[in-house]
Amino acid sequence: MARPAPSPVYTLRGAGAPLNTLHFRCPAGDTPLLFSGSAKGAIHMWDLNSRRAEQVVEAHCGNSVIWLSTLRSGDTLISQGRDMQVCLWDLKDGRSEVVDSVWTGSVGFCQCSVLETSPSNFLLAFAGPQTEEIKIVEMPGKNPVCSLVPDAQLGMVMCVQLWKPDSGLGPLLFAGYEDGSLLLWDVTQRSELSRVKAHPEPVMCLTFDPRRLRGVSGSCEKKLSSWMLDSQNNIQLQDCVMLVNPGVSQLRVRDDGRLLASAGWDHRVRVFGWKKLRPLAVLQYHTDMVLSVAFSDHQDPRQRLLAAGSKDQRISLWSIYNEGPDTG
């Protein structure tokens, strides 16, 4: 007999607007935090012990916050807003001050990607002012690294992910475009390594697991597109994963490589085994589109959570498959 679908372990309310982006920070010995960015420009810093907002920052002049991240090397929060700014925040000693910003010039919804290259430096990739342009700068000096523009008309850049292969190659970047194309770029050589047509519709989201050289992307269709990198850095399309309802806002693989979570336009979060993309659970709680999902990086696997942010202005937190059988 099938197990009943789980319920959230708890929910966070009070954001007052749709939740576009979520990001966990659970350093050893410190209070585990969840950052959320809303459509009204608010960044909430949720204390996961008290389950309350420790701090609320009004950011990006009230424009929608579409992406949040933190750096491993320090108390720095990075936020991206629809005001075409990426802001760096100093969180030391309870502060929340903007210490720097980068102008992107992009009016789209493409979320940035960050890759830490040393304890004090990181690369920031974002959609540029031109339709198909991706800009990469080295921070904190804002030194331009490259501008990547395909040699064909692929439409707007929809999603990007920077990563560094173990082979010794320089940084690489995956990018999904409006026409459904998926490209792999060599950042150092400023060249295109591989291109496939992953979807007939715009690539709404993608995630890539560098350890397994596997990725998955979503669109407004009723399916996820699975793909791998071969030894020549060519993208090879794999089997598709069919969904019950169309539309995926975001995809995330858990750090241990066991689970994939999808944020659905049908108000549901779906959980798959990452190894074989086997459906494991459908999480039903929200009353509107799920816009964002995130896995916590808590040191204790038993305390790891899955968070989902919705257009219904609520965040649900779930404890799933933390110490169970092989998920497949």
UniProtKB/TrEMBL annotation:
Signal peptide extent: none
Record keywords, A-Z: Repeat, WD repeat
Keyword Cell inner membrane applies: no
PROSITE patterns, A to Z: WD_REPEATS_2 (PS50082), WD_REPEATS_REGION (PS50294)
Keyword match Ubl conjugation: no
Domain of life: Eukaryota
WD repeats: 283-320
Name of a matching Pfam family: WD40
Protein name: Guanine nucleotide binding protein (G protein), beta polypeptide 1-like
